[in-house]
Each structure stands twice: as structure tokens, then as C-alpha cells.
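Long-time lurker, first post. I've been practising inverse folding by hand and with some scripts of my own, and I keep getting stuck on stretches where the C-alpha cells seem ambiguous. Below is the full C-alpha cell string for one chain I'm working on. Before anyone asks, I'm not after the true native sequence, just a reasonable design that respects the backbone. If someone could post their per-position residues I'd love to compare against what I wrote down in my notebook.
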């Protein structure tokens, strides 16, 4: 629904992007916000890990928990986000998140400036099946995202 140049989207509605094993719903992209930010609604199923530890060199993120709980590791600290909680994830700080709980987690993520939607879409456009980690690292690098695996895993 458009509202005088803006628009309204109900919960869980928007452009679905099938990437990284989560439900990613793009609510607002750079074209809609003059590249100021992107807005996503993430659905994290029970007992599901999000992306491995990584950092963004180009954008800051914010998480607002809508439902369930989400464990977030940010810059060496651990947080449990619950309904209504807000967490700011600045660029250049390592972070990861997961839902180890029995219920689904839903999070709004504001990413500023816009552009992360293109990264997610690039991942979604990869061929189905096992992913080539070398290609994924290249895609991450193209979007200013750095994987930060511990030495024993890297």
C-alpha cells in the first residue's frame, strides 16, 4: 500500500530473498530510501545458526527483536535479545548470531547505508547445492564483508 510516496508492508511481507538459510524479507532497499538504509525482517527458525563470525566494512547494522530470542556475539560480548530489545552493531566489529531456542526468532535489521540487499541477492542467485567457499569469500569481499573464523576453523 502506498502512502503519499511512502508505502506500508505488513509483517512478513516484502521481497523474499532465499540466502544464508534464514527467512530474509526485504522491506526497504536503497532505491526506496535514497541509499540511506536497507530494512530487513529476519526469521530465524528454532535451533538455527546465522552466518559465521564476520564484519562489515561499509555499513552499520541495528537489530530490534520482534519475537522469540536471539543470541548475538558482538565484539567479544554475548547478548540475548528478547522482544523489544535493540542492539547496535557498528561496522568493523566482528559479530554473529544464532537461535538456539525452541521458538522462532524474528528481528528487524536496519542496515546503513543501503546495499546489503545486493549481497543477499547475489548469494541467493548462486546455483543450488553445496556452496563453493572460495566463491562465497570472493562475494563477501566484493561487498566489504570479511569472514572472521577462529584460526582452528579457518
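-- Answer (accepted) --
I ran through it position by position. Result:
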Amino acid at each position: 500500500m502506498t502512502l503519499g510516496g511512502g508505502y506500508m508492508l505488513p509483517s512478513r511481507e516484502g521481497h523474499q530473498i532465499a540466502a544464508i538459510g534464514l527467512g530474509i524479507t526485504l522491506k526497504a532497499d536503497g532505491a526506496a530510501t535514497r541509499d540511506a538504509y536497507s530494512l530487513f525482517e529476519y526469521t530465524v527458525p528454532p535451533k538455527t545458526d546465522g552466518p559465521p563470525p564476520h564484519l562489515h566494512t561499509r555499513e552499520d547494522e541495528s537489530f530490534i527483536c520482534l519475537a522469540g530470542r536471539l543470541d548475538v556475539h558482538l565484539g567479544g560480548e554475548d547478548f540475548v535479545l528478547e522482544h523489544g530489545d535493540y542492539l547496535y552493531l557498528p561496522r568493523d566489529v566482528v559479530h554473529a548470531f544464532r537461535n538456539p531456542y525452541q521458538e522462532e526468532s524474528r528481528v528487524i535489521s536496519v542496515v546503513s547505508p543501503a546495499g546489503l540487499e545486493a549481497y543477499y541477492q547475489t548469494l541467493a542467485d548462486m546455483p543450488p547445492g553445496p556452496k563453493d567457499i572460495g566463491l562465497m569469500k570472493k562475494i563477501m569481499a566484493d561487498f566489504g564483508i570479511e569472514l572472521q573464523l577462529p584460526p582452528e576453523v579457518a
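A couple of notes from the structure itself: DSSP finds three helices and 14 strands in the chain. The radius of gyration is 15 Å. Happy to go over any region you disagree with.
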